Amino acid sequence: MTSPSNTSNNQQQTPDQSPGADAKTHQGKSSGNQPGTSRQSQNPHIKKEAHDESHSFRYRFGYQQRRVICYTHGTVLDALRTSEMFKNMTKTRQGMEIVIQREKEPRAAVSTHFPCHLIDNEELLTVSFIRVLNGSSSDTRGLYKQSNPPKIQPDKLMTFCVETEGGQNIKTKVMKNAELRKKVKYVCVYGYKGEKVKQALRRDGRFDKTVFKTRCVLSEPETGVDTEMSQPVDGLDGKPLSPQSPTTTDTVKTQLQSKEAGKDGSSLVVKQKKQEIPNSKEILSILRSQYAGLVDHLKERENLKKPSDVQQFLRVEFGKKTQSFQEVKKVKKLMELSASVCQVRIEGTPKGTGFLLFKKFILTNAHVVHQIYEPITNKLQQSVTVTFDFEDLGERTQQIPVQSEVVAYGKGDSGNLDFALLELSSDPDITLPSSLLDIFSFPSLEGGICIVGHPEGGVKKTDPCFIIQHGDRKQAVEKHVTENEEFLHVINNRYFEEKWDIDTRLPRDTEKITYDTCFFHGASGSPVFNEYCQLIAMHTAGYSYQGKRGKTQSVIEYAIPLSGILEEIIIQAVRRKRVDVLQEFLSQRSMKLDVVMERVEAQSDNASLVKAFQEKLPFNSNSSATDQRTFHQFLFDKATGVDATG
């Protein structure tokens, strides 16, 4: 966040001023800078590294969108300054501050000196402006006021998110500018591994002095674990945190002391009797004898050099494993969401899973109904029903019939497109669960997920697991092969090369989200939720092979991101003139769905789609005349009134 005007040394930099430049000596000239770099990145200490790698990200202002190139050692501001649209809009908003908000959850705002290396390739940033209240502009230069600012070290960077509203006693005293607290819920802070929390927050420059003077702590809302300002940032990577007053910690400490000691603090009131764990000495001896070998193995596997590296690795990994979906709050939320998951049956036989996307429309995989789908008539050739309440083998379930006409259908050989949108038959006596489109979000590259579905045609189940990142897929496959060697006797090298080459295709198949789950047959079409209980994808299949006795096995499984499916649904609804589907979709509009609509609008210029989008809306029986708008106007004129629709 920054101010586009030079006001004082305590205000943020202008778009022409780099983090680390002195506002007193800055003259507002940026013509000498190379594209994608600020004056900081042109510092002689890092000039040689400024252009070694690059990628692009997108930014939007209102409903205009641009793509810019950024460099590994540059900042977000460096990249934005190369855009003429950005330059023009800052000139007309002198005296205001810029808010740069990320697309992925929790949609935190980054500082203008936020390293480009931490922005995902093709990520969308939203740029907006807020007022400066009584000279309270945030100083995003922070510690970069020294004459030789430190160079950006991409390999040591990490991020965490901090709520803009604090706990008791510091609720409105977290951010320098109160307008930022009203604009966004989180700010994204970057830090270097090994440095203290206080250093990272001071560098950020947007936090009020109260945060540092009151010995504030950062609390994890889900676990209640507090991190003090004097602690390293390493264990906070990727976590959402809430600033809390130290009075909370002191109160807890006082309560604990009062239980242990008398009024004068000199004698114990209750003394707990300690009991030795049976065989503890023998167990301890075994663990100690194995420890050295385990450490050596860990050092070799993770390329760790020092004992402190091992300790930090174990600390971070333990933190990852104990999070995900163990919190009661998340479990309760998932149970609520699971009510919208259904089993898909053909002629009464379970074939897959689906979920209520919106209104009365069910989303599942195309391969679930592929054998009974007739593409010429666009109809299902056998009866299909769904049931939302198959949770116990002994209970009767309500079967809801599906209409024979398929709303939208997509199936590609690559597996990146595999969906069918089905419509439930109208019945006023049937009460449907909540639609899941309301909680749609874009997937991240890592983290925990949870799948809800009907594996093996059985009752509804959940399976929490972790995303396998692109670079780790080959290792995951090799691990599976090693652990299941006795079941892989029918596999030969040619099969691997032709079906899913683990050396080339699998790591590069970036369209899919991969993970290791126990869900396989019968779970196709299951919704995939992220750690925030948001719908991000649809579980589809696995990288399979013929195992023992001809049974199909899967090495790792994958899901298709929902965003691409939604784009295709809108395009097919236009081609098939399903105004009812488009109306229901538009009624669900949100910031994330606006991004999907923008992608659809970009595709509408394709030669094969121009005619469909420029056709007039079909006659509406509820009105006295034909709606004269085209599908393009109907869909994208809505964008200007998105505030009215939510």
TrEMBL record:
Cleaved signal peptide residues: none
UniProt xrefs under Gene3D superfamilies: Trypsin-like serine proteases
One Gene Ontology term from the biological process aspect of the record: DNA replication
Top-level taxon: Eukaryota
A cellular-component GO term for this protein: nucleus
Biased composition (Polar residues): 1-17, 28-44
Chain residue ranges for the region called Disordered: 1-53, 223-249
Matches recorded under PANTHER family: PROTEIN FAM111A-LIKE (PTHR14389:SF3), SI:CH1073-475A24.1 (PTHR14389)
Protein name: Serine protease
Lineage: Eukaryota, Metazoa, Chordata, Craniata, Vertebrata
